[in-house]
Structure prediction request, 252 residues.
Amino acid sequence: MIKVESLTVEREGNTVIRDISLSWHKGEKIALLGPNGAGKTTLALALSGIIVPESGYIYIDSQPISDYSLTDLRKKIGIVFQDPETQFVTTDVSREIAFGLSNIESDPDEIFRRVDYIIEKLNLFDLINRDTSNLSGGEKQLVAMSSIYAMSPDYIVFDEVTSFLDRRSRERIYKLWEDTPSGLLIITQNFEEIKWADRVILLENGKISFESEADTLLKKNIIHTPEAVFRTLLDENKDFIPEYQQILEILG
Ligand SMILES: Nc1ncnc2c1ncn2[C@@H]1O[C@H](COP(=O)(O)OP(=O)(O)O)[C@@H](O)[C@H]1O
Ligand SMILES: [Mg+2]
Prediction:
């Protein structure tokens, strides 16, 4: 479990995260929403140990984050950014996927084995042997994710990774979220994406202003996913739809 207690983070003298406490369980998927400048990225950077908080505590599996070596920290938590290119260090897709792993794993056979596994699991055969600079935005994002997945961290943060992607690339990433056993923190401005989460947290001006189980929001139709919109239309028109009951049964 990741436990955050009374966390305060400053950036260039301004308080950006204000006295936040939260828990993130192993395997739990959290959607973190909030307006631009709310502090979402800053919180993610603090959780990943990339920036050091002003005060408060972050524990990963009961151990303070500051006690971890960088290698051990990367085995626990990984982060994928909106602009994957800022993360690229090589020009070759396979080497890029292996890069992070090669920093935490010294056995070359194990590295090859894990990279092959990721390529197969994420069906990246169309991407290997290509130059990272020739990939589309969505393909770049898949490679950036794969290099994090290769390290198989317990927790992964996705910081607005789908915002510049087309529908097809987004669907590929959603499939990946669905199949991932790790805990996920999905930072997004797209309300539709809360359906991949167990819990929703809203961050405003450096504070958690709202928190709920995702199911509750979806069931109450507070968040209009395409399914929810469909359901509402269906309910509104049930008197005119002879198969209404059967459709309900199919929808479950
Ligand atoms: N590198 C930085 N240096 C100084 N201030 C920053 C930096 N990055 C973000 N900030 C400030 O921190 C606040 C929160 O930003 P950020 O965490 O990026 O929010 P969000 O991800 O929710 O848009 C903003 O006021 C922003 O101007
Ligand atoms: Mg951000």
